[in-house]
Amino acid sequence: MSGKREQVVEAASALFFEQGIAETGMERVAEAASVSKMTLYNYFRNKEGLLREVTYSLMRKAERDIEQVLKQYANPFEALLNLRGDKAYLMVSEIFIKDLLDEYPELAAELVEFQEKSMVGKIEEVIFRSQQSGMLRKDVSPHVLFLFMMSVKEYMSRPNTLSGVSDIRAASEQVISLLYSGILSEEYREKNRIADGGQRNAGEND
After folding, report:
1. Cβ-count burial of 43 within 10 angstroms (0-12 exposed, 13-18 middle, 19+ buried)?
2. Which of 109, 149, 156, 173 is deepest in the core (most CB within 10 A)?
3. How many C-beta atoms lie closer than 10 Å to residue 131's C-beta?
4. Domains plus CATH for the chain?
C-alpha cells in the first residue's frame, strides 16, 4: 500500500471508529487525510470500498499483533497474558461495530469469520498449550476459557466501568490478576504460592 493510500486508510479508520461509519462522509475523510476528493475516489470507488480496506487493514494489524506476541514469548502462559491487549481491536468502537452490522452485514460477517478462524484459533491453541503444561485448569475447555477472558476484557473496556474508583490503573491490574489467578490450575497456584487475591502476578516464577 502506498504512503498516501495508507494515510487515507488511517484517517478513515480514526473517523469510522470515533464517529461511526454512517456519520463519516468521504469529504470528511479527504479533509482529514489531506487529499482531494478526486484522489480519494481514485483509490476507492466509493465509501464501501474504503470501509472494506479499513476492515481488512484491521484484520492484518490484529494478525500481526498476535504473531508478534507468539514469537516474543516462548512460555505459553506469558503469551496468553500479553495477548489480552491485542492493539488492533482496542481501537474499535461499539458504534463502528453497530454500523458495520446494520449497514454492511457481509463485511461484518467476514470480520467475524476472520476472528473465529485466525484470532480465536491461535489464542485457543495457546490456552490448550498452557493447559497441557499444567498452568491452566484442564476442567474447562479452551473455548470456554477464551470466552470468559474476552468477556471480562470487553466489560473492563467499557466507558465508566471504573468510574468512582480512585486508582483506575491499580483496580484494573487487580481485576486482571483475579481473572488469571482464577483460571490457573490448583497445582500451578500451589507451586507458585499465588493467592486468590492475586498478590503476585500470574505467570511469575520464584
Report:
1. middle
2. 149
3. 21
4. 3-192 (1.10.357.10)
